[in-house]
Amino acid sequence: MKKLLLSCVFLSIVLFSLPGCKKDKEITCNLSASVNQPPVEMNVKYSATQTGDGAIVSLSYVTITGTVTIENPQLPWTITVPVLTSTNVTMTATGNVKNGSLKISYQGINGGSTISGSDYCEQQTN
Prior knowledge:
4-stranded antiparallel sheet
């Protein structure tokens, strides 16, 4: 009986000391940053960055000729394009992250006029 009790105690200690198994889940990020039409014509710099295992599957941005979509852009990514006062400055992206982050942003400056915006998605599973 004593041997059985010691075996049970030992087994309990081993089971409770094992680290818990956890599966890291990947999340989907739907990012969006936009502003209505800028007050003056300007160049707008669009950017996308990631940390860890973040990856963008699809990224779209607006130029004077319309919306441009890029599939699986290599990050970090950046482009500068001219926009008119009739252009709705918009950037969107869809991506996945298990342990890291994704960020999209835009910034435009012309004289005293400035526009900017960003969106961010993060998951840490440590």
